[in-house]
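Title: Prediction job returns without error message
Component: structure pipeline
Severity: low
Priority: P3
Assignee: unassigned

Description:
Job completed but the reporter wants confirmation the result is attached to the right record. Sequence as submitted:
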Amino acid sequence: MNVLEEWTALVCRELGIDPARVDRTAVLDLTRDVAHGVARPAAPLTAYLMGLAQGAGTAPPDVVERLSRMAKDWAGADTEADTEADTGANAGANAGANAETRAAADTSES
């Protein structure tokens, strides 16, 4: 038994949860997707919220897949926004550089 299995068993015992009901791999995959797709602190928060929903009986059967997809979509939307912002910033920087070049050329021609 590795440390993660031991820790999971200990926490399950403390919380009165059947360890057989814990899909550790699914939870770790979800938190990885959220940490990389949204932000690192969002990973444990998402796992906690998912646990609350499970306990309240409001989590859909495919909750892990849905949340993972949301995190990946979030990352994709964020990447698109960054690309658009970078493109706009580069265009502005290029326009500024071109204006400086023209101004220098005008000065040297005078």
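Comment from assignee: result matches the submitted record. Residues 33 and 89 are 29 Å apart (CA to CA).
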